[in-house]
Amino acid sequence: MPFTTITSRRALVFNLVAALFTGWLLRFVVGLEPVWWLVWLVPAFLLWLALRLDGHQARWLVILASAIGATANLPYYRLVMPDVAAVAVLGAQTLLWSFTVMASRRVILRYRSWWTVVVYPVLWVALDTLMATLLPDGNWNSLAYSQATVLPLLQVTALGGVAGLLFLVTLVPAALALGCTYGRRLPCGYLAYAAPVLFTLMAYGYGSWRLRQPVTGASTTFGLASIDDAIGRQATTAYTANILQHYEAHVARLAAQGAQVVVLPEKIADLSPGQVPGWQHRFSRWAARNRVWLEAGIGLDNSGEQTNLAWLFAPDGRLSAVYQKHFLAPPERDFTAGTLYSVRTIAGLHYGLAICKDMHFATLGRAYGSRRAAVLLVPAWDFDLDAALAARMTATRGVENGYMVVRSSRSGWLSVSDAHGRFIARRASSAIPGSTLLVNTPVPQQLPTLYTRTGNVLGWLCVLAGAGFLLAGRRGRGTPAR
C-alpha cells in the first residue's frame, strides 16, 4: 500500500477522533450547566480543526462535532416540547455552530491577517443579537450566560450587555485557534494574540473593582415561598385547600419572622373569570392580616383567551398592581402576551414586576432599568433541569441594569440576587409542604449602568460588521479559502 495512502488514512482517523472528542467536550459548553472555563477553550479546538482541513472535510467534521455537542440539551428539549420540535431545535443549534465556524474559517483563510481574530466573535454576537430579537425564545442559553458564576467577568454586562461578555468569551478561543494554526507566520500576529489577553485582564480588573463597591441602603426582609404542586382547572376541592393552607401558613410564618415583601411563584392556579374575585379576596386577606406586600402568580382562562398574571397586594389588602407576562414559554404559545410594565413604590424604592421567561429578554430587563427599578419581583416556574440556568439568566438582567432580583420559582430556585449578580441566598423548591426562604439585605437605589443608557449598541454594530465579513469572505481579493 502506498505510503501516501496510509498517511492520508491516518490523518482521516486522527481528524475524525479529534472531531468526536471536540464534540464530546462541546457538550460541557452548550449544556444547561456549562463548565465556564471550557467555554474559553473548546471552541478553539473546533475552529482550529476547521482551519487546518480542506473545505469539504472541515464542513462535515464541524457539523459532526456540533451535533454531538447539541445533544447535551436533547433531554431538556424533549421535556418542554414535542419530539419533532426537539429534534428541529437540535438541528438548528448544530447549524448555528457550523455556520459560525465555517463562515469565520472562510474569512480567516482568505485574508490571513491579524484582524481576522475578531471575525469569529463578531459573528457570534451578531447571531446572538438577531436571535434575541427575532426568536420567541430569544438568545436562550447564550454562551455569555456560561460566565454568570464568574462574577468579575459578569460585570462586563453592565457596560455592553450580554453582547459585551459574549464578544470577550469568543475572542479568546479565536486567538487560540489562530495561534495554533499560524503561530509567528500570521502578519502582525502579536496584535491578534495580545489584544484578547489585554481585554480579558481589563474586564476582570473592572469587574473586581465594581464588586468591591460598598452596598448601602435600608435593610429589607424578603420572604419567598414555593410549592411545586400546581392547582389545575380539574383540581379537587380537598387538593386545592391543602396547597392553599400551606401557602397561607408560609406567608404567616415569613411575616412573623420579619418579612416585609413576600413573593409566591408563577401560576399557583389556573382560574376561570368567575373564580378571580374569591382568589383575590383570599390573597388580600393574607396581605392585610400579615401587613406585607404579597405577590402571587395566577393563570387565567377567559373563554379560551389565556393569560399569565402576577397580582401584587399592598399591606392594607389593596390590589396594587396586575402584571401580564410578556414573553411566553413553549407550553404557553397560545396565551395572550402582555405589553405593559408595572412599577410600584415600596419604602421609597421602585419595584418592578416580571414573570419567569420575561427575564430571559434583555429588552424587558432594560425597560425596567430605564424606569429606575431598584428591585424586580419575579414569580417563576422552571423545569427542574434548567433551574440554575434560569436563575442565572435572571440575575444577569440585574447586573445589566443595576437592580436586585427576588425570584420565587416552582421546580426551580427561590433566590435573591443583588445588582452585581451575587446570590445573597438561594434554595431549591420542593413539593408540598414546599420551600421557603427568608432574606434580610440592604436594598440600594438602582445602580446606573452604561447598558441601561445605551442598550445593545455593540450587538447591532456586530450585526453590521458581521454582514460585512460575510460579504468580504465571498468577494475579497485575498487568498481563496480552501
Automatic annotation (TrEMBL):
Listed GO CC annotations: plasma membrane
Example of a GO biological process term: lipoprotein biosynthetic process
Major localisation: membrane
UniProtKB keywords: Acyltransferase, Cell membrane, Membrane, Transferase, Transmembrane, Transmembrane helix
Record's signal peptide: none
Membrane topology label: Multi-pass membrane protein
Compartment(s): Cell membrane
Keyword match ATP-binding: no
Residue ranges of domain CN hydrolase in the record: 222-445
Transmembrane segments: 12-29, 35-53, 60-78, 84-102, 114-136, 156-178, 190-209, 457-473
Family (UniProt): Belongs to the CN hydrolase family. Apolipoprotein N-acyltransferase subfamily.
Name used for this protein in its record: CN hydrolase domain-containing protein
Organism: Hymenobacter metallilatus
